[in-house]
Amino acid sequence: MDLQTLWFAAVAVLWTGFLLLEGFDFGVAALLPVLGRRTQDRHLMLRSIGPLWDGNEVWLITAVGAVFAAFPGWYATWLPALYLPFVLVLFGLIIRAVAFEWRHSHHTPAWDASWTWVITTGSLIAALGIGAALGATTLGLPIDADGNRLGGAFAGVGWPAVLGGVAVLAFSLVHGAMFLALKTDGPLRAAAGTVARRWAPVAAVPLLLWAGLVHLRSGTAITAALWVVAALAVLVAWARIVVGREGQAFAAWGAMLVAAAATIFGAAYPVVVPSTIDAAFDVTIADASVSDYTLTVMTWAAGFGLPVVLGYQAWTYWVFRKRLTAEPAHEQPAEAHA
Amino acid sequence: MSAGEVWTSLISLTLVYGALAVVELWLLTRFVRAGVTTGDGAPAPGSPPEGTPDDDVPGGADGSTRDDDVLSFAY
Which Pfam families does the record associate with it (chain A) (predicted)? Predict the structure, then answer.
């Protein structure tokens, strides 16, 4: 495998890891108005993602960073084409991050309600916007021969972006509900299980449609098989949540995302930005990549750095592995810091 | 990409960060005014003031004085 292909795969893995991890905290945050109407449930939901959301978000930075470092031509076509939509995503991520930090810094009902609303809104914007960006870069952007966007500031937000946004949000909502069913106990666990049971089959449709479209454009027998795996994983996830096996359901739902993302990136390869104007304008990894020498240096650096990062992130999940209940949290830190 | 897009992002980022700075300064002022000891709390030496925004406090020393049931560190 040449280094360009290796780094394309690395970028695909980073985006998939980001959606897999941040997907559930986007989902939990977006479900706050639905499942968090009682104060104790709301606190439980925020505690379930509190120690994890910012670690998950680092995957977004590494994914975009890897695109920038390995494929500057991809970065320079993709981000400017969606410049203002990306700025909007940044606002979503910024207000969400400060809301997590500030919500507990002052204690009035209005303060609490406002920042809870901001967490939900910021998460919705970010999930929709990042999904839209991924939809656009795999299904098509209106770019010319030089990789410049044709049309106004929001010309990049066509149906591919809408499909990607809806797909990521719908996936995240059920992912979040399954996470809460797995991670919490009491009435919230039951309510989250009900949401997941009711919506899992529907919520998978946009993501499977997106993967199917990329496959139909440029797929192979392997991506066809991956798509079937994704579709089967939806059925498994649904069947397991129906019988209350939350861990297996969460794993199957995650496997669905991994298979769908593998279908999307596998079928799109080696095109990183398809043009909706003319297929001759498509940006490929060969057009977009840095030199072989740079990729070699990056491969060595990542080879040493990545295991460390993966190790400590896995450790944080291990530390915070216990189910949360609405009991007063005073004993929790002893476990958490053990 | 047009100059208008760049101006839009520059101005809107300035406004958003400006608004966040106002809230941050308000919170900082509040915590500074509250002081290290707040009446009956009698915090142990080296422990943070009540309602500290720091979420990295080991053990969440202020948890028991809160009117809600959430430790600051645990959100």
Answer: Cyt_bd_oxida_II (PF02322)
A324: its two tokens:
């949360």
Confidence category of residue B68, pLDDT binned at 50, 70, 90: very low
Q: Which residues pair with A273 in a beta bridge?
A: A283
The alpha-carbon gap from A43 to the nearest alpha carbon of chain B, in Å, equals: 7
pLDDT in tens, A183-200: 999 999 999 999 999 999
Inter-chain touch B75–A50, beta carbons under 8 Å: yes
CATH topology of domain A9-209+217-295+306-319: Formate dehydrogenase/DMSO reductase fold (1.20.1630)
> Of A105, A128, A126, A15, whose CA–CA distance to A63 is shortest?
A15
B73 touches chain A (CB under 8 A): yes
Confirm if A184 and A214 have CB atoms less than 8 A apart: no
CA-to-CA distance for A200 and A234, rounded, in angstroms?
Answer: 7
Given CB atoms, is A104 within the 8 Å cutoff of chain B?
yes
Nearest CB partner across the interface for B68, out of A101, A107, A333: A107
Alpha-helical regions (H) of chain A: 3-30, 32-35, 39-49, 53-70, 72-81, 83-102, 109-139, 159-183, 187-203, 205-218, 221-242, 246-268, 285-288, 292-319, 332-336
- For residue B5, the distance in angstroms to the closest alpha carbon of chain A comes to 7
Give the model confidence (pLDDT) of A328-338 as tens digits.
544 444 344 43
* Cα dihedral value B1, B7, B9, B14, nearest 10: 160
C-alpha span between A127 and A24 (Å, rounded): 11
- Closest by CA to A105, choosing from A90, A95, A115, A96, is A115
Tally the residues of chain B: 75
pLDDT by residue (tens digit) across A266-305? 999 999 999 999 999 999 999 999 999 999 999 999 999 8
Give DSSP secondary structure letters for A287-300.
HH---HHHHHHHHH
User: How many Cα atoms are found within 13 Å in the side-chain-facing hemisphere of B40?
Assistant: 2
User: Where along chain A do its domains lie?
Assistant: 9-209+217-295+306-319
**A94 interaction partners in chain B (CB closer than 8 Å):** 16, 20
Q: Is the ipTM of this complex over 0.85?
A: no
A1 neighbors A239 (Cβ within 8 angstroms): no
Phi and psi of A229, rounded to 5°?
Answer: -60, -45
